[in-house]
Please model this.
Amino acid sequence: MNGPVGVIAGAGDLPLLMEQALAAAGRAAAFITFDPRQRDRLAARGANASLFGLGEVNKIIAALKAAGAREVAFAGKVDKRVLWRKPWLDTRALSILRNAGKLNDDAIMLAIVAELEKEGLPVASQAELLRAVMPGAGALTHRAPDAREQADIAFGMEMARGIAALDIGQTVVVHQLAVMAAEAIEGTDEAIARGAKIAGAGAVVCKVSKPKQDPRFDVPTIGPGTIETMARVKASCLAIEAGATLVVSQNETVALANRRHIAVVAV
Model:
């Protein structure tokens, strides 16, 4: 589809990666973000970036239409814990939450997608737009997982797929064939820190996609921040799903893992 893409930009580096991918494809983009720092980062790159409150859905849709957006893409995590802090929500945001029924990730995102599509704003596949940064199978780092880590990976990927199937989270931290932590609403980095606090040095982190992953949103993502968190708590290995995980700033991520002696493998 030609024409501008409206990008709902959450936290982290994924919005910058989306900006690069769209520019490389000759597509204009209009970014909507909820974080002043993210707005400033995007604006510094010359991107059209507007700042709104998370609950200002009427204004966000109006801004997307005013920018001439023909479709919408999601990039970056929005911390859903904010819903428990009683943010201000306009009438349309309240309607979306009512239509979602549940406050798990898939229910909320599918309700948002339905609202956008009702307004003539189809949601593009995040996975398709960023396919180039989803590595195939094999070790990404100089060091491949050792025998102990391989055993934890086999166990951990099975456990991670179990919680992903229940839409609880997509990451587990394992050590010696035991689950130290399973990701929930707090996100990957906090789950890593929590699990490694129990495991000590040598924890293995396994991150997977959901069995029925919707490619329009919430594609599993890692980046330099993931490696920094692992290094801080002395985790030793990260396993991701080949062809199904976005690696933000891949060269930087792999170089950092090599310096920290962390094995990263796509399986």
About this structure: The chain has two domains: 5-124, 132-266.
